[in-house]
Specification:
heterodimer; A: 35 helices; elongated; B: 4 strands; 68% helix
Chain lengths: 840, 201
């Protein structure tokens, strides 16, 4: 009577053992079931079990009745488990205990949670006590069953069971276990019944039936229904039920449970890493009930077990193509694998693992880099303290107060002591570090305005910590020695007294407030591993990525970080020297004289010479003066625009444009730039404009040369791209500007620059144009892609402002675009995203 | 101060700064009714304005404290109020841990920002939070016997969790919205003031 087969042509098969199931049939088995099936069939030491299919659930939900044949099939599968394990369900000499889990094909909320230790009834408990010689163990298993079942299935308060048996003493005499068990069970039962008016069934088969039915019913829990409707998932899908043999890490020796990572999740080092809780169960590890030891330590005691685990880890990594975490249990020296998932990892580890996998070469590049996200790269690229400077500051006694690092990040700024002042001073563009005794709701706006927060009281779960993490700002809490005097506007800690406005630095990871400004590091972190990812991404994508910069220093930094060139604009560069407005005013009021334009010509030449020198021949694309540029954030006063509306048109003042071109070309000559700079005019949308630009370019003095063209920002322009391309050597498309024109929402809102009100008014988050390109814009870009194919001589680039998402990169790369310009902090994010797009 | 004035002022103090519309939504009252009360409170120098935002003055909290002491005298004498407070502190600690786990994942002893790519992990936390909200509702239910305004908290939580279930994950813990965490934090302040107790952290 081994595996009773109900697979006759007339009857549907409702239940499969792990080995019999087809692991690819996720729709039938659910995610968990399919995973367990796969591992079993691969020969991994998975505790045996069976799966009641989603089809059974769908039938049940449709008809209100369990389909005919399910009960028999389940009994047959239990019989098979008994054979495989040598145990007996509901009895002795060795009882079989099982876990019951839900597992839909798609993860969703509202599904019933796992029930463990099912199968304890009077006979089974007595047999188990006899077989193990450990009555306390059996009572503990009973408690766990009562607690879990009553909470998950009956809805009771999780503490009532523990409360009921807290002082249950095992009688000193030699009272038969059967009696003890009955009393223990009765206590639990009473507590649960008092709480919710129901009880855990005493009969193991009833426990199994009730649990299975509860899983099936949870398919239609309110939350699951809401979720499916919102995500357009069919209500007919159903969930599977996974029933699996329990193994006990808290029985016998060597026994225990833990989680192993196939690589160090903090550093990414290629070594088995993790914990082992001796004589513990999996749920104890999760609950943090006791302190586990490291796998390294445990491996010294039982090398064969951990050797096997290491071998399994290696093979699994290759099979899954990813670093993994493995939940495992050791029961009396036998290793079991319970669950395998993609391992969580720090950003640093993610980069190192991806680099190692690329170097190793056994995985496809797309698999190797799948574990590195854009946010990982952003995190590693974020401004941080120069380590040497930080250490020196610490050594010099700069640490004013220490507490709990509740939210990581390193920021230097000026000290501020209440929320209102923070809001005020933030308007002046200062980086502020807000210090408060504790947080109250009043402080929220100060927290939003400040760059970092430090509080005297509180712990890692305090309101300040929650808000800081939500805002991704550094936060230190619980600086006990710190006190704030709002009247005197001072902060005292120990002997030190700081004034509001003093320069301070905060390290949210280490939990320290320092006096003075620690210098920021110029070098991005990530080292050789990140460089490898970048090089391989560039090679795969074949893309050229420029950085949007304004100063020579920014240009140098961008080049150091692998930018292939820079994009800038004349108005931005002139604004950094404070000349823009004066030059524009003079140009506007020039009348018939030439003097003002000559001045502009020279100013542009002078401003661009250092920048071009820094570039050493690397690509530079420059936007001509754009008086209404929202990239520069309104540099030109409205009054001037009112007087000179021609500034708002791309070709409103051709003579001024000629002067700009001349200045740029002169700068190239003076700096010995060695290559041809490019000049593009923003907002062009008509081929005649483009032709005029081209002709102006041709008028440059002998020996001076620029490539010229347009910078498109409107849908009209993009629609006419083909005609514009005929007249332009270079064409940039500002993707966000085009989207903004489509949506009618200002770019500043699309890029979430977090003004106070915008933050409070969250409705606009529903428009997530940051993460993808809308279909209408996409169609327009498809047409541009065609233009690009037809005109290989025209340089066509995509300007992507703000965050670069994988989806946007994939879409643009997929269309064939290979030239991009992004904000400096997104440079490496973009390169990786383009590499991923190429490898897909 | 009338009861309505107390309730409106209470919301403004708990939120720190808010618009009239937000107060109306919290109290489930028409905006026009709230506007009238707001005008009265302004005249009484208990709130001020910063643009469209209503801001409590320094006199606001003491006024609330005084009102609560008078209005909740019988609640404070009832031994049950201590039990309610104890029960709350217990689930409060659990909710804050759940929120912390939502925001940061433990990776080998290091805390890493949750990028919400693991739906199973997220779902477990939302389920935990939902259960804790259910337990909180038993507490607000008991308080509701003394003052029905406490029952509004349960409705606000349900609305927030509903949005979370619809995929608007920020309604679990993001500040500045009617998120589960924000409502919970406000309730905590409200409870302490109503019971006349101080924060334990």
């Amino acid at each position: 009577m081994s595996s009773v087969d109900h697979d006759s042509p007339a009857t549907t098969r409702w239940v499969y053992s792990f080995e019999d199931a087809d692991p690819d049939d996720v729709a039938l088995l659910g995610g968990k079931g399919a995973g367990l099936s796969r591992m079993s069939r691969a020969g991994l030491p998975v505790p045996p079990g069976f799966i009641i299919t989603t089809r059974a659930c769908a039938e049940y939900v449709a008809t209100g009745k369990l389909p005919a044949g399910v009960t028999e099939a389940v009994r047959a599968q239990v019989a098979t488990l008994e054979q495989k394990t040598g145990r007996t369900f509901g009895g002795g000499p060795l009882p079989l205990l099982v876990s019951v889990r839900s597992g839909a094909p798609v993860s969703m909320p509202g599904m019933m949670e796992t029930i463990l230790n099912l199968g304890i009834g009077h006979d089974a408990a007595v047999a188990l006590a006899g077989a193990t010689g450990e009555p306390e163990f059996v009572l503990d298993v009973t408690r766990r069953l009562q607690k879990g079942f009553s909470e998950v299935v009956l809805g009771s308060d999780p503490d009532v069971v523990d409360g009921a048996v807290a002082n249950f003493a095992l009688p000193a005499g030699g009272a038969p276990f059967a009696e003890m068990f009955d009393r223990y069970w009765a206590r639990c039962r009473q507590a649960v019944e008092d709480d919710v008016g129901a009880a855990v069934p005493a009969d193991p088969w009833a426990q199994l039936r009730v649990a299975v039915m509860a899983v099936l019913r949870s398919w239609n829990s309110q939350r699951a229904i809401t979720y499916r409707e919102h995500h357009h998932i069919s209500h007919d899908m159903g969930t599977a039920v996974v029933v699996q043999t329990m193994v006990f890490g808290n029985l016998g020796s060597p026994s225990g449970a833990g989680v192993a990572f196939t690589r160090n999740p903090v550093t990414g080092e290629r070594a088995l890493y993790g914990e082992f809780l001796e004589h513990g169960q999996g749920e104890d590890v999760v609950a943090g009930v006791a302190d586990p030891e490291t796998i390294a330590a445990a491996a010294e005691r039982t090398p064969e077990i951990f050797g096997e685990l290491a071998r399994i880890a290696k093979n699994l990594e290759l099979a899954y193509g990813d670093a993994l975490d493995i939940e495992y249990t050791v029961e009396r020296g036998k290793l079991y694998v319970l669950q395998v998932r993609s391992a969580k990892r720090t950003p640093e580890a993610a980069i190192r693992i991806a680099a190692d996998m690329l170097r190793d070469g056994r995985l496809r590049p797309s698999a190797a880099v799948a574990g590195v996200s854009a946010d990982h790269v952003r995190w590693v690229e974020r401004p941080r303290f120069d380590q040497a400077d930080l250490e020196k500051a610490r050594a010099d006694g700069a640490v004013v107060a220490a507490g709990i690092g509740a939210s990581p990040g390193q920021v230097a700024g000026s000290l501020v002591l209440d929320a209102e002042r923070a809001v005020e001073r933030a308007k002046a563009g200062r980086e502020l570090i807000l210090a408060r005794p504790t947080t109250s709701p009043r402080d929220l706006h100060g927290l939003i305005a400040a760059a970092a927060i430090v509080t005297a009281r509180g712990g890692a779960t305090t309101h300040a910590a929650v808000v800081a993490r939500a805002l991704a700002k550094p936060c230190v809490v619980g600086c006990r020695d710190m006190s704030i005097d709002e009247k005197r506007r001072t902060l005292s800690a120990g002997e030190r007294v700081l004034q509001e406005g003093d320069a301070v630095s905060i390290d949210g990871g280490a939990g320290e407030l320092l006096v003075g400004s620690v210098r920021l590091s110029r070098v991005g972190a990530g080292g050789a591993d990140l460089s490898l990812l970048m090089d391989r991404s560039d090679a795969a994508s074949g893309c050229t990525v420029l950085a949007r910069v304004t100063t020579p220093a920014q240009a140098r930094t961008a080049l150091e970080r692998g930018a292939a060139g820079v994009l800038t604009s004349i108005d931005d560069v002139l604004a950094t020297t404070g000349q823009l407005v004066n030059l524009l005013e003079a140009a506007v009021r020039r009348g018939s004289g030439d003097g003002a334009l000559t001045e502009m010509h020279e100013a542009v030449a002078e401003a661009f010479t250092p920048l071009l020198t820094a570039l050493n021949g690397v690509d530079i694309d420059v936007g001509a003066i754009d008086a209404r540029s929202d990239e520069s954030g309104g540099l030109v006063p409205q009054a001037l625009l009112d007087d000179a509306p021609q500034l708002l048109l791309p070709m409103g003042d051709p003579d001024m444009l000629r002067a700009e071109m001349g200045g740029l070309a002169l700068a190239a000559e003076r700096s010995g730039y060695g290559s041809t700079p490019r000049l593009v005019v923003r907002h062009v949308s008509d081929p005649i404009e483009a032709r005029t630009i081209r002709r102006l370019g041709e008028e440059l003095a002998e020996g001076r040369r620029l490539a010229v063209g347009s910078y498109l920002t409107s849908p009209r322009a993009v629609i006419r791209a083909a005609d514009l391309a005929e007249e332009s050597e270079v064409m940039w498309i500002d993707v966000r500007a085009v989207q903004e024109a489509m949506f009618g929402i200002p770019t500043s809102q699309l890029l979430t620059s977090e003004p106070l009100d915008g933050y409070l008014r969250r409705g606009m988050l529903a428009v997530d144009s940051q993460s993808d390109i809308d279909s209408v814009t996409y169609e327009l870009l498809e047409a541009v892609a065609e233009v690009r194919k037809g005109r290989p001589g025209c340089r066509i680039g995509m300007r992507v402002r703000g965050r670069v998402s994988d989806a946007v990169a994939a879409r643009l790369h997929g269309l064939g675009f290979r030239l991009f310009a992004v904000d400096p902090h997104e440079l490496r994010v973009a390169r990786l995203a383009l590499g991923k797009a190429a490898w897909k | 101060m009338t009861r309505t004035e107390f309730e409106v002022l209470n919301v403004i103090v708990l939120k720190g700064m808010c618009r009239t519309r937000a107060v109306a939504e919290v109290l489930a009252l028409p905006e026009s009714a709230v506007e009238e009360t707001v005008a009265t409170l302004e005249r009484g120098d208990l709130i001020g304005r910063v643009g469209e935002l209503l801001v409590p003055t320094d006199a606001a909290e003491p006024a609330l404290v005084a009102f609560a002491a008078a209005a909740y005298g019988d609640l404070r004498c009832d031994a049950e109020s201590d039990r309610l407070h104890e029960r709350f502190e217990k689930i409060n600690a659990q909710l804050l841990h759940a929120i912390a786990a939502w925001q940061q994942i433990d990776v080998g002893g290091h805390k890493v920002a949750n990028d919400h790519s693991d739906r199973n992990y997220d779902e477990k936390i939302i389920t935990r939070a939902a259960k804790l909200v259910e337990r909180l509702k038993r507490i607000t239910g008991a308080l509701g016997d003394h003052d029905p305004r406490f029952l509004r908290y349960g409705e606000r939580f349900d609305a927030a969790l509903d949005r979370v279930d619809r995929g608007e994950r920020e309604y679990l813990s993001s500040p500045g919205l009617e998120s589960v965490h924000d409502i919970w934090f406000e309730f905590h302040e409200d409870l302490l003031r109503s019971l006349g107790k101080a924060r334990t952290e």
